Each structure stands twice: as structure tokens, then as C-alpha cells.
Amino acid sequence: SGSKTFFLVGNASSISSALDAARYGETTMAEFQDMITDTQTSLPVPALIMTAKRTIADIESLQPDENKVSLKRMVARFDIDNDKDETNFTVKGIIIKSASLQGYIFDDAVRTPATMETGNIPRIAFTGNDTDYQGPSEGVFYMYPTVLVNDGTELSLEGEIFGQTRLYSLQSATDVPLEPTKRYTIKARAVA
CA 25, CA 34: separation in Å to the nearest integer? Predict the structure, then answer.
């Protein structure tokens, strides 16, 4: 009886050793909530790591309609919107440099100073050109939270335009934070 807190984790293959480090009766709540994922070495990991936390005031009086939980995706999702007939650009791959290779497991982490490992993610082949559908390709890749900056994480689209292979980097005059549970769309524009 009494108050209980439940932590739910889905698609946790990329964080198994982090959770294995938790010890009943030894790991504090703050330490548990501050856990970070294992280092990402390839995609689609971290893909759909989803977590939730739910505190129930009195477990014995819990009603069936009160036991709903909403899982949150702890990575940022990226879609690509490119009408190749309009832009003359055929996306072939995505290049990501200096990205966060780790992330917090829970969205309300204590976030004590932790050094997240960064590095380059292996090239992501883009297959959204393989259909006649010209709309956005959804969920092309996922990333742990980071910030796009001129000297930090860099996203580039690799592709062909007018028969030549080109690499176009996404650029912004200001820092762009990439947050968990958010969806971002990379939209190609026509060039002359």
C-alpha cells in the first residue's frame, strides 16, 4: 500500500547495460532518473526508445481507468520532404557529424553534469526516392538530443542534382536545439 512510482521503458535494446547497472535498495531515485543510454554505434538505434514515469498515490485503490500511461520518445525524429521533380535533387543519404551518441533515458532526468559522448554516425542510406509518392518521407532517422551549431553537430544531405553528386549541409545563423519527442522536417528547395 502507499505511494509507488513506476518507470516504463520500451524498445530498450540500446540502453540495456545502463538499466542493468541499477541496483534495488542501492541506486537512488535521482541516480536512476539521471541514467544515460549506451553509446550509439549505428542506426536505426536509438530509433524508438520510449519511456514514462508514473506515480500512484495509493496502489491498492487504483481504478482500471486510472492505469493509462503515455510513453514519450526520447529522441528527435526527422522527416525529409523532397519533391525531386520540383527540386531536381535526388536524396541518396544523410551524413551526421559530431552528434550526441547518448541521451537521458527519462525525460525528467535530474541532469547532473554528465559528459555525453559525441561522434559521427555512419551514413544513412535514403530510400524515400524509391516510390512514386512525392510527399515527406517520415521517420527517416532519429537522434539523441543535441544542438545544431556551426562548430557542433552537422547534418548534411547527400544526393544527385543535374547528374552530379553533391553534399548540402543544413545551416542556421543561430543554434538550433534538437529536443526529444519533437519532430523535425528537412525540406529541400529547388535550385537553379
Answer: 16
